[in-house]
Amino acid sequence: MPRVKSRSETVSIAQLAKHLGLSEGTVSRALNNYPDIAKKTIARVRKAADELGYRPSTTARRLARGVVETIGFVLPARHGHQIDPFLAEILDGLATELALSDWDLLVAAVPDGHDEVEVMDRLIRSGKVGGFVVARTRRNDPRVDFLRKSHVPFVVQGRTAKSDDYAWLDIDNEKAFIDAMNHLVGLGHRKIAYLGGDPDLNYAWQRREGFLSAAKAHGCDVPSGYVFDNITDEMAARRAVTELLKHPDRPTALLCVTDAVAIGAIHALAHAGIEVGSEISVIGFDGLPMGEAIHPGLTTMSQASYQIGREVGRIVVAQANVPASELSQILWEASLTIRGSANPPAQKSVTNAKGGIS
Amino acid sequence: MPRVKSRSETVSIAQLAKHLGLSEGTVSRALNNYPDIAKKTIARVRKAADELGYRPSTTARRLARGVVETIGFVLPARHGHQIDPFLAEILDGLATELALSDWDLLVAAVPDGHDEVEVMDRLIRSGKVGGFVVARTRRNDPRVDFLRKSHVPFVVQGRTAKSDDYAWLDIDNEKAFIDAMNHLVGLGHRKIAYLGGDPDLNYAWQRREGFLSAAKAHGCDVPSGYVFDNITDEMAARRAVTELLKHPDRPTALLCVTDAVAIGAIHALAHAGIEVGSEISVIGFDGLPMGEAIHPGLTTMSQASYQIGREVGRIVVAQANVPASELSQILWEASLTIRGSANPPAQKSVTNAKGGIS
DNA sequence: ACGCTATCCGAAAGCGGTTTCGGTTGTCAA
DNA sequence: TTGACAACCGAAACCGCTTTCGGATAGCGT
Q: What's the topology of domain A173-303+338-355?
């Protein structure tokens, strides 16, 4: 265990103090704006400090103060093989916001054979982080349960089934899918199928709820074979579309749990020679830039991932600064972005031509 | 500045030592496998340590040892609005690899009005990181210049124009594009256009070099209007395609600097009613999962971003552990993934039917 | 029984800051 | 003048762990 320190390179408070002819304590208090230091001393210290390029060692400061201005973010174990673009944006926003408050962002992965809670526990016990942000919540999420018991501040992007006693920021997924349904029904659709995700993930659950309750409210029939779960990749989306096309009562619209699923569905439809946006309408959720690029453009419910990241960062820092503060529980709305993939259904005649008698 | 410490929660080495009836020093040495501690003492200490759930405070340990096992990664200032999926994968791999060596990953953003070097400088001076990974290198990159002067270990994903004196891992972009050209020429193409990126970014430069040198080697004509630069988003790709379609000598193939550009081009072509893969072939670079989903599938040069992240992580840690070690300079090859978007050009007759006299 | 190595462990000095607690000054009213 | 009270600053303890150094103990040969 060699000492690798390059202590020469960096200015310590001791050097600064000697340089100024002051004691270390005074210099420290000056830099931290203690009221009992003369204004001009403060100024003098400040000046010397940035002339010498002094930056207090965060390590030492942490040890002395006992606070760690770092929030942890554990990357979800990669079930698939690619990181979700939504997460990447959140991270970006989070890092940006934290930078403004001089907090750091520690990103951790979960090595094989370990689990997320274990990783989080180590991060806390070893004092590497002083707070957490968790995303991609399951309806019933061990990470949240763990953090509830631990005493570090944390904010959840999303919610769990029981979410009254911690801070979170979520998109109103249920309302978003009701809105999407309203839009489809407003366009004249009645036969709407749903391509859902893993219902353990709370957002997928909520979205399905939104779909189902809206269908009920509008009196839309949801025949068996109209609702799919666990559509998590392109291939699954294709299979689902294939089945739907064989359905005796073929839907005129598809509501999809994410843009990725919607895009998969669109490709599958195109592949089957179905014209998207006229023969069948498709709506997604996320607002990925990708949706703008494909043809037809994807009508979707957009959420501002980057902003979500920023807001979550703001909240977690606020909570760390005022530990006993009220818990923020914030619900944001997704907004409908209309592009070419959802339009009124084909005229009755066409519909009749298929199943029709009259 | 209140003390927010939850010092009660966490076991310190003092408590552990008292519990064992040993001195702190002995406990420390036992846990760090010093040879001068009796084997059974070590065992006893170990046992007690994880019974009590003791985790040494990284802060204190860092202060004492003078080393910071954290590597920094500065997110490129977001010129666009979305984070590059390639970066996200690298981060994932990096985090995974670092976790194996018990290193941490600190992700920092660049606040408005600051620049990347400034952020890196602060991270180093304040002792928050002990090494860096930089990605998305420009041909002539101030970050690399800065790190060269600073004395922290760092590894560059990519290279700069002058790259002999630091550690890097790069894809052989030039060779990749030569390979892609060989593939196209092998299929029978002679009229190949190039949709390039920002030539300040070294990979874009290298890829264009590869294209140009291969074109020359094969004796392919590259008429003016065949080479585009600064295609950085879908819109630009569309505009370029539009121009190419009006070109008096319309190309039979498009080589694109990235998959994103290729996908943009494909959509533009589809939109113009051109059948991709028969009328015009398209090749991309990256191997994004997206390329598999579109129709036709995108023929592309794949790079294993996640693996790149891991390897870069391995290198930077190795370098931090053995500061004077040889610099790793590693070149990986991209591999050709053949899908539907590149095929032999339309038969001569068709070609002739257009511009032909005979 | 004695001295002499090995073996093992305790004491103590850091690491670079922060923060409490007093002790000096200078000022001003009595 | 003198005393009291601010206003400022220095001394020193501490945060939790590491590491050097030397002392105590035990085992061994003689």
A: Rossmann fold (3.40.50)
φ, ψ (nearest 5 deg) of residue A286: 150, -45
Query: Could you tell me if B268 and B242 are in contact, meaning their C-beta atoms sit under 8 angstroms apart?
Result: yes
* Contact at CB, A289 and B65, closer than 8 angstroms: no
Total residues found in chain B within this entry? 358
> What residues have CB less than 8 Å from A206, skipping those under 6 apart?
A173, A174, A177
Helices B58-65, A58-65: inter-axial angle, 10-degree rounding: 130
Q: Identify any residues that bridge with A254 across adjacent strands, giving them in sequence order.
A: A193, A282
Residue whose structure tokens are 């070149």 = B331
State the DSSP code for B327: P
Q: Are strands B281-286 and B299-302 parallel, antiparallel or unpaired?
A: parallel
What's the rounded Cα separation, in Å, for the pair A329 and A26? 42
Same topology between domain A13-56 and domain A70-170+305-332: no
What's chain A's length in residues?
A: 358
Q: Which residue on chain A is closest to B261 by alpha carbon?
A: A293
Tokens of B311: 């390897």
Test the A interface: residue of B59, B79, B147 with most A CBs within 10 Å: B59
CA-wise closest residue to B263 among A70, A288, A97: A288
**What architecture does CATH give domain B13-56?**
Orthogonal Bundle (1.10)
Picking from A125, A234, A267, the nearest residue to B10 by CB comes out as A125
Along the 358 residues of chain A, how does pLDDT read in single tens digits? 333 334 347 899 999 999 999 999 999 999 999 999 999 999 999 999 999 999 999 999 999 999 999 999 999 876 555 567 788 889 999 999 999 999 999 999 999 899 999 999 999 999 999 999 999 999 999 999 999 999 899 999 999 999 999 999 999 999 999 999 999 999 999 999 999 999 999 999 999 999 999 999 999 999 999 999 999 887 899 899 999 999 999 999 999 999 989 988 998 898 899 999 999 999 999 998 778 877 788 999 999 999 999 999 999 999 999 877 899 999 999 999 999 999 999 875 444 333 333 3
CATH class (in words) of the domain with range A70-170+305-332: alpha beta
Q: What is the Cα–Cα distance from A313 to A297, expressed in whole angstroms?
A: 32
- State which H helix or E strand residue A98 sits in: helix A85-100
Cβ-defined contact of A55 to B126 (cutoff 8 Å): yes
Residue keyed to tokens 């009836």: B21
Question: In CATH, what number does B173-303+338-349 get?
Answer: 3.40.50.2300
Question: Looking at the DSSP assignment, which residues form a beta bridge with residue B280?
Answer: B276
